[in-house]
Automatic annotation (TrEMBL):
Similarity field: Belongs to the peptidase M14 family.
Keyword Transferase among record annotations: no
Keywords of this entry: Hydrolase, Metal-binding, Zinc
Positions of the Peptidase M14 domain: 31-308
Domain of life: Bacteria
KW Hydrolase (keyword) present: yes
Identification of the protein by name: M14 family metallocarboxypeptidase
């Protein structure tokens, strides 16, 4: 668990960034891994078993990224829809690879019972830079609204719109990392001209339920399954995680739609955001991926057993 300095090397304290500062920030971002070799190649191998579609295109300067989704090949209009999203924050690696592993290893277990729609890497530019924001220094996971400023988010909303009111479950796969505190929250404060206020990074897995439509038993079913794979984040001394009260073991709540979060883009009764902690000394990358897969499977199993 990390503590970060208040200083950020771009901009002037107390003054929101303009175009000059955003350009300076962008100039500091470098490509560190390959969306094509690590994500698109995996999706391509799944093409013989699923319907694979390009639902959009992201252009960033000279770079071009197809936005890809995986669907059940036996899609039936009489079946409930389950949506799995990963990589909304591109640096949250297990969200991407957990979604891909679920599709590869478990999705066919649900054939004939649900229609699956998986968007494993919503923000490919950020995936390659291991960053939270997109190329415009915008957080896609605060942009899932009609007037949102992130094309990644708008493209996903267009993909989901036809099944928005038919979805039974939507699980959005995320991570909380030490770099949230050492880089991304200080950058956010600098970008917005606000003071940086340190937080304690929780050590372990937790979930974010919808405060406007909570389903505690669903969230707890997911927690119980994930606990077999990795540890659950305890509350801090104030009974909170990242400033939000613990409402059940390993569960906090946000108003998903109000905040423009990905998990709020459908009318699904069962909605949640997973948060894995990959920087823990008690977790490996393989465990983090497995925790995401366990969460997805447990969520679908609960939703099918308890149709709302």
């Amino acid at each position: 668990m990390s503590t970060a300095p208040a200083f950020y090397p771009i901009g002037t304290s107390g003054i929101p960034w303009g175009e000059v500062e955003r350009a300076e920030w962008l100039s500091r971002q470098s490509r560190q891994r390959s969306y094509e070799s690590e994500v698109l190649s995996v999706i391509e191998r799944l093409r013989s078993r699923f319907d694979v579609e390009q639902y959009g295109h992201l252009g960033c300067g000279a770079e071009s990224y197809p936005l890809m989704a995986i669907r059940s090949c036996d899609w039936r209009d009489d079946l409930p829809v389950v949506i799995i999203t990963g990589g909304v924050h591109g640096y949250e690696t297990s969200g991407v690879h957990g979604a891909l592993q679920f599709a590869d290893r478990h999705a066919e277990d649900y054939a004939g019972r649900v229609n699956l729609l998986v968007a494993p890497c919503v923000s490919p530019w950020a995936y390659e830079r291991i960053h939270r924001w997109n190329a415009n220094a915008v957080d896609p996971n605060r942009s899932f609204r009609q007037d949102g400023a992130a094309e990644e988010s708008l493209a996903l909303m267009r993909l989901v719109e036809p099944v928005r009111d038919r979805a039974l479950m939507h699980m959005d796969l995320h991570e909380t990392t030490d770099t949230d505190e050492s880089e991304f929250r200080p950058a956010l404060a600098a970008r917005d001209g606000k003071p940086f206020e340190p937080c304690e990074i929780p050590d372990g897995f937790y979930l974010v339920d919808d405060s406007d439509n909570p389903h505690t038993e669903f969230q707890q079913a997911v927690i119980e399954a994930v606990e077999k794979v990795t540890h659950i984040a305890p509350a801090d001394a104030n009974g909170e995680v990242l400033g939000s009260p613990i409402v059940a073991r390993g569960v906090i709540q946000y108003p998903l739609k109000q905040l423009g979060l990905c998990a709020g883009i459908t009318s699904a009764p069962y909605r949640t955001t997973t948060e894995v902690y990959p920087d823990s000394t008690r977790a490996t990358p393989e465990q983090c991926n497995a925790a995401q897969v366990a969460a997805v499977c447990a969520g679908i199993d609960y939703a099918l057993a308890n149709p709302a």
